[in-house]
Write a structure and sequence with these properties.
The chain is α+β, with helices and mostly antiparallel strands. It has helices at 4-31, 36-58, 93-106, 162-165, and strands at 73-77, 82-86, 120-132, 135-147, 157-160. The longest helix has 28 residues, at 4-31.
């Protein structure tokens, strides 16, 4: 993953390329080249590209890594107060707790708002069981509730449904 410093370097190179294209565009208008209006579009695109690279150099794009966490997939996110992640059916309760902590950190965003008035983001972890061919059942293993307002939430409420682990295909302990 690129660092903000690398994005700043790419911004500089993109800025130089934008200036070169802008100069060629001005030259095209002076010399009345047939492609001068296409160059206006190319210059506009280069300006937008440079601005985007600059904005990426301002914010860190790092993900939190919690020891013991396993890979998860984001299944549902309403952009406000609810999200669901999918985990393997081979996960252990300790791995699930670490994974929920990591998901709570990675899914935090200052842009999340509470339309329902609930001040917390709820992230539920599930797996899918297949008790018979052609039948799939979502199976919830736990959840975490974290603050929408505070990035460093020290009072996250993590619930692990221990009784559900006994119902998984292979007993995890």
């Amino acid at each position: 993953m690129f660092t903000p410093a690398e994005f700043l370097q790419y911004t500089q190179w993109s800025g130089i390329a934008t200036l070169v294209v802008a100069v060629v565009t001005v030259l095209a208008f002076i010399l009345k080249w047939g492609l001068r209006f296409r160059l206006v579009g190319a210059t506009g695109f280069m300006i937008v590209l440079t601005a985007g690279l600059f904005s990426l150099s301002l914010a860190p794009l790092t993900r939190t890594v919690i020891p013991g966490a396993v890979k998860y997939s984001l299944i549902y996110d309403n952009g406000a107060t609810q999200a669901v992640i999918a985990v393997s059916d081979q996960i252990t309760p300790s791995e699930l707790e670490a994974t929920l902590r990591q998901a709570a950190s990675n899914l935090y965003s200052a842009g999340r708002s509470s339309f329902s008035g609930e001040p917390q983001l709820t992230i539920r972890a599930r797996t899918v069981l297949h008790p018979e061919p052609g039948l799939s059942i979502p199976f919830y293993l736990g959840q975490v509730k974290r603050s929408l307002a505070n990035r460093e939430d020290t009072e996250m409420n993590i619930e692990i449904y221990e009784d559900k682990f006994a119902q998984l295909p292979k007993a995890n302990s």
